[in-house]
Structures are given as C-alpha cells and as structure tokens.
Predict the structure of Metal dependent phosphohydrolase.
Amino acid sequence: MNTRSLSLATLIATLSRALDLTEGEPLGHAIRSCWIGMQLGEALSLGEDERHELFYALLLKDAGCSANSHQVSEWFGTDDRSAKYELKSVNWSRLSHAVRYAVAQTKPGAPWRERLTAIANIARRGPQAARTLVEMRCTRGADLVRELGWVSLAPDAVLNLDEHWDGSGQPRGLRGHEIPLLGRILSLAQTVEMFWSRFGPEAARDVARSRRGSWFDPELVDAWLSMSADDTLFTQLAALNLPHQIASYDPKPRSLPWDDHAVLLPIAQVFADIVDTKSSWTASHSWRTAHYAKSLTEILGEPPALQEAALLAGLFHDLGKLGVSNLILDKPGPLSPAERAAIETHPQMTYTLLEPLVPLHMIAEGAAAHHERLDGTGYYRHLKGPHIPYLGQIVAVADVHDALAHARPYRRALSTEDVLAIMRSDRTTKLSPDVFDALEWGLLNQPERFVPTA
C-alpha cells in the first residue's frame, strides 16, 4: 500500500461512514448504496463524466444528515439516529404509515399523556413538518457537496434525493423527469440497500416493485429487478464494507499526495461543518479548535507540516460525535452515567472512522487523543504522559479552551481570564505544560492569533 499518496475515492468512501453513523445506519451503507447505484449507471450506459458524478453523489448523499438532527430529536423526543433509522423503512408519502411512525417514535417510554401532547404538537405542524426536515437535510447536503468544488451534477442529485416519481416526495414535489436522473438513482439505490440489509434480498426486490411508478422511475426499477434476479448480486453486496473496495468504481480516479492540503483541507472542512451542525451548541467548534491548534504549533515553533497536521486533526477531532444522540449533546443538565459513557465513545469512533486512511495515521491518532489526560484520567485509551500523541496534546488544549470560552447547554461562556484560571489548574497534571504555556502566552500577547478568520 502506498503510504505517501491517498486515493480521493477512498478518502470520500472512508468519510461517508460518518454519514452512515448520523443516519443510524450500519457503517458501509453509503458504500453499498454506491455500488448498487454504479451498477444501475452501468446498466443505463451512462458516460464516464456522469458516472464520476454519480459515484460521489452516492457516497455523499447524506451530507446534510446532521442539519435536522436537533429538530428530529426535539420534535419526537427521542434519539435522532433511531428515529431516522426507523423512518427509512416507512412509506411516509402515505398518511396512515406516517401516523403510525409518529405514534411509535414520539417519546417512547414516556407516560401516555406526555406522549399524546408531543404527538399533537407534531400533528399541528402538518405536512409542512416533513417538508421542513427534508428541505433542511437536502439543501444543506447539496450546499456542502458543492463546496468541494470538483463536482457539478452531484449537488443537484443530493438536493433531489427524496423526490418521488409521482410527485409525492419532498421538498419540492418534483415528478417524473423533472427529477434529475442521478437523483432518481440515489433514491432507488439507498432504499433497496436499506431493505436488503434489514430484511434480505426479496425485500429489496419487493420494495422496488411495490413503489415502481410512485417513488421510483419505472425504467430504473426494471433495471434493478433484472440485475438482482440472480442472488449472486447480493453475495457480492454482502462482501462490500470497506472503503478501498468501492474506490475502483470511480471512473476517473485521482491520487492525492498525502500532504496535498489544497484538496484535503476543503474536504476536512466540509465534514467538520457536518459535525458542528448537529448541535447548535457546537456551531463552528471544530473549525475554531483546528485554528487554535494550528496557532499553538506556530507559537511552539513547530514545522509547517506539523502545523497543517494540527489543523486537520482539529477539524476531524469530533467526527465520532455524529454517532451520539442529540438528546445527550443538547441536554441542559448533568449527564447520567449511561449518557456520559455514550459521549465518551466518540474519540474511539473518530479513530475507527479515520483508521482506513493509512497516510493520515498521525492525524487520526492525534484527533482521537483529544480527551486523553497526562495523569491517565482521560479517555478512551486512558493514556498517560508521553504515551499521548503530541498532536493529541495540542488538540486537547485547543479543544478545552474553545469549550470553556463558548456557551454550552448547561453553562454560560467564560471569560479569557476564567478559562486560563481553570486550565492553569490542570497544567502538568492533565494538560501539556508546554502547550498550555503557548496558549496563555498567545492569548495575553497575540490574542489576534485566536480569532478564527473563517
């Protein structure tokens, strides 16, 4: 394996698993949806450029997944990821199905009076509620894909992911060929993958057959039924989980030097935005943490390569939080032991998500170590002192500074003086003294370094 370069397809496929996490899907959902969609593209004899756009649209179809997480959690009073997971198997264009879903998902386990009040509040929102949630997700997703700068058709496909052939979809109610072809492929590919993964091959055929002409383009359904008639396709699908397995399906492959930040940085920024959008309390947190981490390496006199690595580690450090319920992230009071345990899984998940990117191993290690502490009281590996990656020690100081300096649901933002006082008490016991000293010197002597420019 070449550890000095990075396949763009492998990079995006790897990061697509973070989107699976947010949607409550098993890791690899987007990868398998991509494989199904690329088979359909091949069956339709799409050209190379269209298949290239389709490839990235399929992997990034859920880029807007976090945009409505807070609303889903707040409206339904439940884990946003489980609510999204259950919705995927519901024919929500039918009122009776939508009502059953709302009743089942709203405040499960709460007293019936409380549940009925919440259900009534959702009912008062009417069909506009579904339109709002889909529009937030699809519009934000399209905008983020567009920000990457090297795709042109993919954003429109993501925007129209939830439109239906008969006009019953969201958010614009497009019908038939008004829906871009790539968007129609995305819709079918993700649905059959989900029904296959939950219920098996026949369910994947049945859902396409039953929604032919309502949700799905009849021509695409016919192509799917033809290619899936042989169970060999599902055997191949079951073996497909890892990012490098799908990378070869990009018809215009691109290899990036591992330090090509001109391409890598915008991708990291997009995924940082996805993380920070999940909760209003962490808006721009990843970008600020990354900026602070880079500023700290500059003050410490580290070489440019380490400065850029700190920037990327800061952008990626909370990637695993996409797997944490908004009921926890937005909770205004103290966390229960179970909730604390759940949130403490996020650094390990960050590492799991980044691990396949061998050329970025140092960045993955540093990002995942941002909650480790010198005395071993941190998590998730409970590392001590010099065993904590240096990059992790830098991101840890940057992360603590930003968390204290900005409001959280359980407390106000703190002044620079208060932040430094709290952090100073942890100097040498929990936080690197050298890195803390760099932060203190910078805040007191060059505060402009700690004002993010983007």
